[in-house]
Amino acid sequence: MYNYGIAIHGGAGTISKSLMSEEKEKTYVEALTKARDAGYAILRGGGSSIDAVVASVSSLEDCPLFNAGKGAVFNAEGSHELDASIMSGKALDAGAVAAVQGVKNPIQLAKLVMVHSDHILLMGEGALKFAKPYNVAMENAEYFHDDHRFNQWQRMKGSDDFQLDHSDKPKQYLGTVGAVALDSHGDLAAATSTGGMTNKKFGRIGDSPIIGAGTYANNNTCAISCTGSGEYLMKGVTAYDISCMMEYGGMSLYDASHQSINTHLLKLGGDGGVVGIDRKGNIVMPFNCEGMYRASKNRNASNVLIYKV
Ligand code: ASP
User: What percent helix, strand, coil does the chain show, rounded to 5?
Assistant: First the structure.
């Protein structure tokens, strides 16, 4: 049996302890624990890594603390456009949706795209048409509304500024949720979901629904979910960059992920982080900014972390 395990994130960026109340920190820790354990329970029961990452990401999407699903950031028009992707390391199957509106759990729709379509990435209205026969849960605008995110948008509305979640300073990049898992059968999977950036315009789509940039899984190497400055994660093709360094350079997951985040992404000018897991069950959670909401669990250890350790 493989050394199954899971790692999740709820966004990286300027998360400073001085701005965090004890109570707020507790709610984050509880939400991360719940999401991590939802996926881990599936792995412990012999379930698949795909089902595990969908369970964890769905739990984070349902929690208004994170910038995905309920509580996603507002775009320039005052609505929510959601991006998500999923990949299985077994046969390199993948599915993704971009700029979808009203979908309660975009990660579940991304999985339907992976399983039931001949395509990988569907966007907007087309993705909703595809979703129709599968009775995908839909919600109205009120469901996605969160006062904190609304106020973030009010401060930027009408300007050319944009910002990622968990940050009150413009052009600082953070937010998004994701999960990676190895199951007891030896299969890897990765999933990522986001509302993108506050006040985003022109149908902007970030790295999260882009296979290779925000999400990647390959049983020969690793499963990776990214968070941070989407434009830079796309330039760095960060999730695939890590996999490539392992596959073609013989590097360990630890060395490859740290090099990608702390050297390659930084050189491009981007900030962010990843969660990753390899076939041996090694877990990494590197980031090059102040903090990253993150948690992991395998048979030997578990943790929930926010700041640098
Ligand atoms: N990477 C995401 C995006 O650019 C946002 C984030 O991770 O916070 O849409």
Answer: 35, 25, 40
DSSP 125-194: HHHHHHHGGGT--B--HHHH--HHHHHHHHHHTTSS--EETT-SSTT-----EEEEEE-TTS-EEEEEEE
pLDDT in tens, 78-97: 999 999 999 999 999 999 99
Pocket of ligand 1 (CB under 6 A): 11, 164-165, 174-176, 194, 196-197, 206-208, 227-228, 230, 233
Q: What's the gap in Å between 153 CA and the centre of ligand 1?
A: 16
Q: Which residues pair with 214 in a beta bridge?
A: none
Q: Which amino acid is at 200?
A: K
Q: Which structural domain, as residue segments, surrounds residue 125? A: 5-307
Active-site residues, by number, are 176
**Structural domains of the chain, count:** 1
Residue nearest to atom 4 of ligand 1 (CA): 230
Q: How far apart are the first and last CA of the chain?
A: 31
Q: What is the pLDDT of residues 7-35, one digit of tens each?
A: 999 999 878 788 789 999 999 999 999 99
Could you tell me the distance, in angstroms and rounded to a whole number, from the CA of residue 300 to the centre of ligand 1? 31
**Tokens at 190, concatenated:** 């990765």
pTM exceeds 0.85 for this model: yes
Q: How many other CB atoms are there within 10 angstroms of residue 267's CB atom?
A: 10
**CATH number of 249's domain:** 3.60.20.30
